[in-house]
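Something for you to look into today, if you have time. Could you write out one complete protein record for me, on any chain you like? The space below this message is yours for that.
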Amino acid sequence: MTDRPNARLSSRTVAFVLAGGRGSRLKQLTDTRAKPAVYFGGKSRIVDFALSNALNSGIRKMAIATQYKAHSLIRHCQRGWSFFRAERNEFLDILPASQRVSEDKWYVGTADAVTQNIDIVDSYNIDYILVLAGDHIYKMDYEVMLAEHVATNADVTVGCLTVPRSEASAFGVMAVDDDLRITSFLEKPADPPGMPGDDNRTLASMGIYVFKWSYLRELLMADESDLDSRHDFGGDIIPWIVRHGHAQAHRFSDSCVRHSVEAPVYWRDVGTVDAFWKANIDLTDFTPELDLWDRNWPIWTYSESVPPAKFVHDEADRRGVAISSLVAGGCIVSGTEIRNSLLFTQVHTNSFAQLDRSVLLPYVRVGRHANLTRCVVDAGVVIPEGLVVGRDREADARFFEVSDTGVTLITQPMVDAWSAGR
């Protein structure tokens, strides 16, 4: 452990990011990549938010545990997060599930992902471990949560959202006393508990935990030998501490990074196609709730070296124009009308096409006369000339993935099926 007790808490902490999940509710968007590696916001990946929060909070020691189809995620981290300098005692370690414990054992739970890397975490010479989910969109100053953890002398501090009690059954929720000490931890209860002084609101877990490493290390070793355990933080470790130790709730509103005092607290789980589409399209609002332009709290990522976006043609029915939209570098908008949409890097669109409230991931090509409404188009897809999606839900559902609210997901295999079956 460190011998500098007066050092800033963030310098004595490792951020351990859990990024191994598939995110199956995102349908075919996670067929080739883990959920944390899914694109977001025009140029970023979902995992960039947890990593950027850690970096902006002063944490320079990070580890990221990967498992499901990790190549895209690992490559992104290598390209976009390789600026740490070992001589300054800073790093981003990538820890794939690698059968370190036995030849037939991968990570079997969120806690097990840390347990299997105990020897590596020991080598970091840290006092505290900040465990993060790598698949949420938010901006948070972790130093505030670390300070609260130390001030309350807690065994674990749990980051919490305040949600309407009527919606809390979808979360792991906490009952707390007046000092925010957790008195019970419940997974998706039918009747969630209210908060002190506000029976209509509930505290829901964000999957963010702070521990003193020496304390967590002992718990993980004991949990490893428990044959009845699921080896999960929310299912096993946190409930045990609530019963036998001191578990403290930390309100996200106390550490949320906002662009103004009046701005709402912003946190999104973009775990469904609908949620993913909406969170991206919301960025086209006049004043979006998520401020990606804040230079004081930037979202770091891998940025390709590409030319500026280009708009060409200016004829009555063939004008390259984007209205209330985000268009990333390297895009060429050639005679296409774009409204309330988000185009990632290197998207090329052709004449007489129209895009409305659609999200196009990198390297998409849109053919002439194509018309896309309320669509999410996966990376690298070639939209054929004349393809119309978003006007006839029943016809779209024959070849494409249509959500309950009418958002259509388009991948290359779907396009190929459409081309063969039309």
Notes: Residues 107 and 171 are 23 Å apart (CA to CA). The mean pLDDT is 94. Residues 213-224 form the longest helix (12 residues). The two ends are 65 Å apart (CA to CA).
